[in-house]
Amino acid sequence: MWTLADKELSSRLLIGTALYPSPHIMQEAITASAAEVITVSLRRQNPQSGGGKDFWQFLQELNKHLLPNTAGCHSVKEAVTTAQMARELFGTHWIKLEVIGDDYNLQPDPFALLEATRELISQGFEVFPYCTDDLVLCEKLVEAGCRILMPWGAPIGTGKGLVNPYALRTLRERLKQITLIVDAGIGTASHAVQALEMGYDGVLLNTAVAQASDPVKMATAFRYAMEAGRHAYEGGIMPERDLAAPSTPTLGTPFWNQ
Q1: CB neighbours (10 Å) of residue 51?
Q2: Which H or E element spans position 39?
Q3: How far, in Å, CA of 217 to CA of 209, rounded?
């Protein structure tokens, strides 16, 4: 078990609800992943209008904790308004805060993100900011009141994995008391293992499962990747070294020559 904000969870995987071939496959994949927290975008699926009602029904049937997000927002005002609407519609004070600054790589706008974070925390939100792996930005977000940070592994949807392990390790080492979740860029199960081996508390992903040739099997792979990565971290990963060392040391002469 581990604690995410005010919830006790078993799984360290957070999973998205977009891009699946069908709502039924989405349900099967999320169930197979064992994730207990799912993200949903108000800007893409409003539960009170049109097809959003059917989608909302599918989400309710999963019986998971909801983490609404402000995906697609490009300004502080837009993000704050979307978060306020999400709190009212989904009945949660959790919000995954996204304020996009560049449409080419969907990189978060660090200045707008920090401003929106301060405003939402003042309104009682538990803010899960989607940010880059910049140490100074992350420290400022913590100073603003964030207990959880979600630095990217790589730009959204690229599947490149952890492109800057040094920066991610630095965040883990410097922000020991903060819950850190790698969000975006995860492409396969080994990327999730790598993040957990670093000591990250969890991983949030969507595309790697939703657009796999078999989303259910890929979700299952990520389920066990989370367990493997965490067990490896807790077990104590051996340090790398330049010189070879025998796994079976030789002591003296063989006993049969004595």
Answers
A1: 10
A2: strand 37-41
A3: 9
CB 131 within 8 A of CB 137: yes
Cβ contact 112:145 at 8 Å: no
The verdict on whether 7 is a catalytic residue reads: no
Beta bridge partners of 127: 95
How far is residue 4's CA from residue 37's CA, in Å, rounded to a whole number?
10
Q: How does DSSP classify residue 70?
A: -
pTM: 0.90
Q: Quick one: what percent of the chain has pLDDT higher than 90?
A: 79
Q: What is the pLDDT of residue 258?
A: 57
Q: Which residue is catalytic, options 53, 64, 77, 96?
A: 96
Helix (H) / strand (E) element for 228: namely: helix 215-235
Q: In the predicted model, what is the mean pLDDT of residues 101-119?
A: 94
For the chain, give the percent of residues with pLDDT over 70.
92
Q: What is the pLDDT of residues 18-47, one digit of tens each?
A: 999 999 999 999 999 999 999 998 765 555
CB 193, CB 232: distance < 8 Å: yes
Is the Cβ–Cβ distance between 197 and 161 less than 8 Å? no
Report in angstroms the alpha-carbon separations of 230 from 97, 149, 251: 26, 18, 36
CATH 3.20.20.70 holds for 2-235: yes
Pair type for strands 2-4 and 7-9: antiparallel
Return the pLDDT at 250: 66
Please calculate the CA angle 89-86-112 and round it to the nearest 5 degrees.
Answer: 165
